């Protein structure tokens, strides 16, 4: 998250076992670099209204349940334990979801999920 041209905060996705930690960047060059990368992606992004509606058809109920857990804020590591699946089974289901939808990343999947007009189940 870039706060202004002088401060950026980066969530910790590197150090295992470190809970709610991260980095506060205030080096001007580092903040400028992060801002330039953000702006590059922003300038090439597709607007929400240009994407079109998502449909419910391609996914199983188990896959929908995994996506609902991710949407609720649980990590991929936590989802398995919450719904009685191994981490490997969750990873396999998410790979199947990405393939079924034709996406490369979970960011794309969750963007699609956010637009899906599907009734919430269980």
TrEMBL record:
Q: What is this protein called?
A: HTH luxR-type domain-containing protein
- Identify the InterPro entries for this entry: Sig_transdc_resp-reg_C-effctor (IPR016032), Tscrpt_reg_LuxR_C (IPR000792), WH-like_DNA-bd_sf (IPR036388)
Single GO BP term:
regulation of DNA-templated transcription
Instruction: Specify the HTH luxR-type domain's residue ranges.
Output: 56-113
For this UniProt entry, the molecular function terms from Gene Ontology, in alphabetical order, are: DNA binding
